[in-house]
Write a structure and sequence with these properties.
single chain, 289 residues, alpha+beta, 5 helices, 24% helix, globular
């Protein structure tokens, strides 16, 4: 089964960004992709670089125009599409959301980002309410999948709970990059850590991991901005890199995966069998004194 991750830059016009992503998704479908994933908040530049009330105008309802146009494509091409969305749930209540569209164009499920960061130029707590969907997996025409979003990718608990619900592939729509003023040595460490933690989720859970990131140097709030490092990749069930995109080019990253490999890997590395669920009570505490 072929996966496709859409890695591209994002300009100032939402309509143009949607049109670009839609064109890439259509091309991916024509080239045999069965599950297609967009990058996080692809409809606009990464606006969370500043706290600006005007940016709330970028949000739209769960079943708004962006979902609708991708639903039509999913139905036409008989593909599953994961669509990132700045969701306006109601006045004053916004989420960073992923909509999972099945191959008939219907919504198979939704996931609202659970872990919300607040770091320099990543001021997401100003915009997003933490998700209330919990960690989920959904049956689609091409298999049972899970979706987590960007900052979620650093938390092994999120990947584990998603895998325990049967997700054979965990997708991570992402918007992550460097502060250009940071030294190159630190940038290299950050990129390596980002890749390593996600590959480790594949190992620990015996599942596939697909992370899609944007590219480009964005300065919507002025200053140095953020340089997004791309590097979208798909990891196999033993953490091996099956496919990886460049750091600076727009491209569709394809990876062919065999879901039967999940059973083989988990049989030989039976981490789920050997979990000591009777001894993990402390994991739900903030700190064990």
């Amino acid at each position: 089964m072929r996966l496709a991750l859409l890695q591209h830059a994002c300009g100032p016009r939402p309509a143009a960004n949607v049109a670009k992503a839609l064109k890439l998704a259509d091309e991916a479908a024509r080239r045999g992709a069965k599950i297609i994933c967009t990058q996080e908040l692809f409809r606009s530049p990464y606006f969370c670089q500043s706290e600006d009330y005007a940016n709330f105008a970028l949000a739209e309802p769960l079943t708004g125009p962006t979902t609708a146009v991708f639903a039509r494509l999913a139905k036409k091409r008989r593909v599953v599409i994961i669509v990132s969305l700045f969701e306006k749930r109601t006045a004053g209540l916004y989420h960073n959301t992923a909509v999972i569209l099945d191959a008939d164009g219907t919504i198979a499920g939704t996931y609202r980002k659970m872990h919300i960061p607040d770091d320099p130029k990543f001021y997401e707590k100003f915009y997003f309410t933490p998700g209330d969907t919990g960690f989920r997996a959904w049956d689609t025409k091409y298999g049972r999948i899970g979706v987590l979003i960007c900052w979620d990718q650093w938390f092994p608990e999120a990947a584990r709970l998603t895998a325990l619900q049967g997700a054979g592939i965990i997708f991570y729509p992402t918007a992550i990059g460097w502060h250009p003023e940071e030294p190159a040595t630190l940038q290299a460490k950050q990129t390596a850590a980002w890749e390593t933690i996600q590959r480790s989720h594949a190992v620990a859970n015996g599942c596939f991991v697909a992370a899609v990131n944007r590219i480009g140097h964005e300065r919507p709030a002025g200053g140095e901005g953020i340089k997004f490092w791309g590097g979208s990749f798909v990891a196999g069930t033993s953490g091996e890199i099956l496919a990886q995109a460049s750091t600076d080019r727009e491209e569709i990253l394809y990876a062919d995966v065999d879901l039967a490999q999940i059973d083989t890997t988990r049989t030989h590395w039976p981490f789920l069998r050997d979990r000591r669920i009777d001894a993990y009570d402390g994991i739900t505490r903030r700190l064990i004194d």
